[in-house]
Write a sequence for this structure.
């Protein structure tokens, strides 16, 4: 198993680190089963709103956000106090057209200092070249933030359809292949994206954005975050709380309030 020190060294050198085994395939299957049970009770896949900040709707998602093995891998890079700015389920249906264009996260997050923010991407199903695994452009984490343009492509899983305006060298593209229970870490400057799912199974990724409490939101309105480990001595964000019961009226109200606040923040960034 890769040591936490080695994970930190590789992340700082390459802008990403993968694969990192954080749970068994059996445990990953249990998380997937709980997700799909939530969908069965709805009679449909989770919609766009529900795929954002699911840790405020479901106990299983909150448990995954604060999974000890995940936090132990992130802590040497970010520090002992870990806030979560956002959580996103990146689900691509088998044979679907969903994809993510090449982009840099910090271009549209508004967090400062941005180099303190890290994404943990956990595979709950096989994330392979065929199923549309994440791809990164090697060395691009050393680049400044490039201009992006937005699109209204409904098959783009990015909220604004944002696409970086920079040439991509095919020789520098790396496929980040993960098996269930494995995780990748990547920084906010690295150019990354993914293709559609050509496999016969769903591709389910659970993305968590961690940062230390001294990071601020540049928008002139309050933002929200979830304290996953340690303490928050700065108070730059209104703290979110996981649901006592999944899918309860209280959980839906808290989730709706946090999503409305994030939309207000995004109107400024």
């Amino acid at each position: 198993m890769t040591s936490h020190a080695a994970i930190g060294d590789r992340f700082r050198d390459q802008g990403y680190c993968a694969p990192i085994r954080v749970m068994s395939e059996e445990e990953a299957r249990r998380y997937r089963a709980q997700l799909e049970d939530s969908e069965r009770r709805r009679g449909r896949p989770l919609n766009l709103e529900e795929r954002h900040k699911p840790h405020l709707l479901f106990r299983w998602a909150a448990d995954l956000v604060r999974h000890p093995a995940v936090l132990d891998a992130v802590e040497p890079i970010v520090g002992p106090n870990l806030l979560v700015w956002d959580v996103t389920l990146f689900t691509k249906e088998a044979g679907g057209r969903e994809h993510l264009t090449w982009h840099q996260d910090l271009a549209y997050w508004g967090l400062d200092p941005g180099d303190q923010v890290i994404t943990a991407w956990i595979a709950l199903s096989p994330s392979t070249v065929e199923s549309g695994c994440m791809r990164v452009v090697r060395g691009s984490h050393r680049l400044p933030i490039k201009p992006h343009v937005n699109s209204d492509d409904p098959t783009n899983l990015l909220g604004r359809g944002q696409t970086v305006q920079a040439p991509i060298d095919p020789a520098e593209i790396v496929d980040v292949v993960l098996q269930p229970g494995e995780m990748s870490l990547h920084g906010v400057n690295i150019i990354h994206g993914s293709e559609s799912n050509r496999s016969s199974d769903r591709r389910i990724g659970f993305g968590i954005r961690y940062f230390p409490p001294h990071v601020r939101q540049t928008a002139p309105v309050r933002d929200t975050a979830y304290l996953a480990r340690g303490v928050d001595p700065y108070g730059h964000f209104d703290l979110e709380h996981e649901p006592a019961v999944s899918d309860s009226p209280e959980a839906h109200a808290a989730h709706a309030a946090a999503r409305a606040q994030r939309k207000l923040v995004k109107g400024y960034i």
